[in-house]
Records
---
Amino acid sequence: MPRQSDQRRHRIRAARRSVRGPVRPGSRLDEAAAGEAPAGEAATDRYTESRVAPALRAAAAYAWRLLVVGAVVYAVFSVLGRFHEIAVAVFLGLVGTAMLRPVTDLLARRIPRPLAVAMALISSIALILGVLALVGETVAGELTVLQREFGAGVERIERWLERPPFRVNPEALRDVQSWIGRFLSSHRSTVISTALSGAGRLVEVLTTLALALFSSVFFLHSGDRQWNWFCDQLPPSARERVSVAGRAAWRTFTGYTHGIVLVAATNAILVGVALYALGVPLAVPLALLEFFAAFIPLIGSPIALAVAAIVALAAKGPVVAAVVVALIVVIGQLEGHVLHPVVMSWAVRLHPLVVALSVIGGAIAAGVIGAVVAVPIVSVLWSVRQALRALHHQGEGLGQDPGQDLAPGPGHNPGPELAPDPGPGPGHDPGPGRP
């Protein structure tokens, strides 16, 4: 027995040395591992891979790549967060450019382009200030009547809550009112400091708007030249891809901007007309609130209409408030099943779940501003991905290596979709086709 165990131990040691040691020339292991790692390392790798499930290996390969991408995205958003005023100003400048470029192009056919840019910007600023003045005049004119109606409306709501089916104790309602009064009086210093910080915030907002206006002037006047200059700074192998991605991004951003403004204007008109017909006070300011809230897809419009329902409940009673709630449902269905599919389907091809997740994620990351810019950013990224994918398949169809430069050579006509725009020359519109 001891001899058999010793012989078995020697055979095991010899087998281990044959695996770990050098491979004899001409052996099977030498032929299999020719040009690769030594036989011992190859055998160890094969043994390790055989013990790890393929699904786990694939998950690990994806995991470290996702970690790298997540780190890059986090770094980009951290930089944007540090300079969020500049990022917001550039975004607003692009929005203004997308809205005013058709007007500027139309005016530039008859007058010099600098004068067309000035007229378009001045007209838009006058329109915005006129709407704000109308809202302020409406609020100032209805302030006295509104205070009286709100006082009567609060008493009416209290009596309504005291009756069946709620049967709220009147003492509880009075306790709530007294608690609100005590809270405001005890936190008066906090309210004052918030108001003072709001003044500083107003300065930041005015600075951001001024920078956005400054950016819009140059985007409208010479956006094409700026984009061509940027593309010329890139390596030749990347210019075609960046040019295609830029055109796709600007086309999607412009379509989204036009579509969301049309949807918001339609919602605001319907809400304003309905509230005015129902006799709800502050119909014009509530319609303006609906216009701005519609820029947050899916959740902005219901929130604005909920505010309108509260005003209707305090001023006109539960019946009118119920009608406004029904209006919330009708406008939500109209926006989700008519306006968005018809107006924005050609510009934004995102599933409603993706839109909802984008809005919530943007709100968590950057508040209201993040909720507003999340959907256009996701839409632009998706359109860029689709454009580059189409360019990749076109390169494969032409028999080229997708990793090689796809820039057209001499005598090659890249077609109307991929042909680079002509540089600014006589009769050329220098508007920001690809800012």
Note: The first helix runs from residue 2 to 20.
---
Amino acid sequence: MTTPTHRPDPGSGDDGDGDRFPDEGYSPNGHSDTSRAWQPLGRDVAPPGGAVPPPVPPPLPAYDPPRPAATDNHSVADRVMPPIGVPGASPGGVRIGVWGASGSGKTTFLGAVPIAAMQHQRRGRANLVVAGMDPSSAEFLHESVDQLVSEQRFPQATRAQRDLRWSFSGELPGARGLRARRVNFALEVLDLPGEAFNPRSNQVGEELHDRAVTHLTNCGGLVYLFDPLLDANQQTASINYFFGMASQIAGRVRDEGRLLANGRLPHHVAVCITKFDHPDVFEPALRAGWVTQERTGDIPCVPDHQAPGYFDWMCDSFRGGSARLVRDALRNFFHPARMSYYASSAIGFRLNPHNQFDYRSYVNVEPDGGRICGSPPMPINIIEPLLSLEGGLRGTADRPPRGGRLRWGRR
């Protein structure tokens, strides 16, 4: 295997407000992957200005049992806000908001959480048990697994407010020989229709929009779903669902006296660039050299330390237009050291009978987009954002940063 040369991560710095990461090999996502050996998927990418050859499918190997992934080393930023408690949680809870344009897949993202949790331990990363903390939350978990796995269809878009409260318990592998870390927290999410996040929409009442602003303001962490295909539609462009909400949240946080010294919001944010499995996203990313595999047959990915650069490429070169404004607004409203990035998919790729990725047949959605086909869902980067946010909201809450400067450190 060879290690491909990737672009630098232009968005991973601190724009002068904070320190750059002193620990080479660690990313805001908390994984140590810069020292791992990766191989490009398909042919090498042509030099700039040259013709890009079509990718060549990798050979279909004989069955090889999956092996555990590398140890998950965590590196998290200093925090300001303590976690907000959820009744019944032990030892405490975090309030995380899921934010995105109408149709960006918020309900599907949440529905994939229990599936991703069950599969997480297979990759040697963590064993997490997710359970509902009230009857409606438990019913959502059961219904989501039934729809995505048994019925092979996507959940219906949210039409009304839905409060979800889940407990997460388990164990994360220790980094560099350290003891495993216990995970025990509660997650509170308010699932709202996408139009509630558009201040100019007349499809929802003012009360529901105000509820969305209040919820995101009170959250410690935010999962922001950026759908690169949806963003091409002017009616669902991400900027329509971002700037108005962000400015209202900033106004409320300012009035509460909770802004960081540099004027930014105190939230921790996980930016999920969705639909990584879709050919209209996967193929351009493949040709641009962002997609790699640890070995032939493994599920393709964008390595964690490349994810900020992948998001920049997505906004600058692939999507352009208002997507650049969304990228700039995210780093304007939120501190870069409190942000992490993920190439994610709620259903993942279609796998062959040996449970391996085959470039010749990887699409996992029927042509009409209404049903999942082939193998059961294999979510990509669904649990990771939640764990990153939970870790970022815990730890050194009693050591607020001065002057808006944040430092990275290991736990």
Note: Residues 1-38, 42-91, 401-411 have pLDDT under 50 and may be disordered.
---
Amino acid sequence: MLGKKLGTVLIASAALVTAFAAPSAAAGQSDVSGQEVRTKVNQVHIWENGVKVRTGRNTTTSKVVRTVNIGKHNANCQRKGDRVTVGQWTNTWWVWLPETTPGKGNGGWVTAVYVSGGSNNAKIAGIPDC
């Protein structure tokens, strides 16, 4: 009798572990939820020096928190904002670059115009929406 009850408890415990573990594994593959956006490292290539990183996706009222130069930069996600046009390139998408050092407060938005490989008015491939 004790063996039968113990077996039932073990089966029930395994079912609970499976029920709670499965959603976590699925969420880790989404690339969209808040936790995954913070932990997944995506990179974009900036093609210009001195590109402004701003507190918002607005070129007239957003504060500049730093600048970035040509090269690869970590990028968390992207969202629409002000239209920016540079030469033949134009885009309303902005990419969030995380802080360079945690606690510095210099994470911010860069217009997708300066990201290599994009098209006019198009999202940057491989970067999830915010």
Note: Residues 55 and 108 are 5 Å apart (CA to CA).
---
Amino acid sequence: MELPSADAATERRRPTTDGHAHFLPMARRRFPEDSRRRSIDEAAPMPSSYRLPVAAALVALAFAGMHLGFEYVDGGVRSHHVLNRADLPDISNWFGLIILPALGWAFGVRLRNRPGARRSIWVGLVASLAYGAALATSFELGATDITQAIFFGLLPLAIVAPIYRAECMLGFVAGMSFTFGAILPCFFAVLFACLSAALRLGFLAIRKRLRRNRDA
């Protein structure tokens, strides 16, 4: 008959416990780690996928704020009548604080999604900014013929150029905002953008169908 060893006697004297006793030390070690991890995650920098849209929206907001600040100290923020007619409702330039950042966000999203076409995107922004500024300047100078020529020149541009893209809309609205505010140029930008998209997409669909019939 073998006598029980000292280790076996010690094991029998050790009180029995359930899994909770083993869980408590682990929990004490785990919870501080979780809290530290949460604090690190909360202090983590913004994901790179949002940096360009946010930066573009903030720049557009600063541009709108500069414009409205200039108007505010120069006699008050202006309003513009629809179609420049006094019998139609007027719209305040304060809407620029919403419209320009929204267009800036769309521009930033396009920059993020098309990294290989950033040069052409910037060219589109600068060209549309110059086009809108030329239209606004000719209106301010009272050159009605030039203003009409530039305005109706948007019709052929809607056919030959993709003016429905975010950079074109942002540049056009920003270029005209100091004269007309943001909401009226945005209305015309959306109108011509829809026309451009319909014409170009329709043309592409017709060309694709003709090519399919020719191949058949």
Note: The beta strands are 79-81, 90-92.
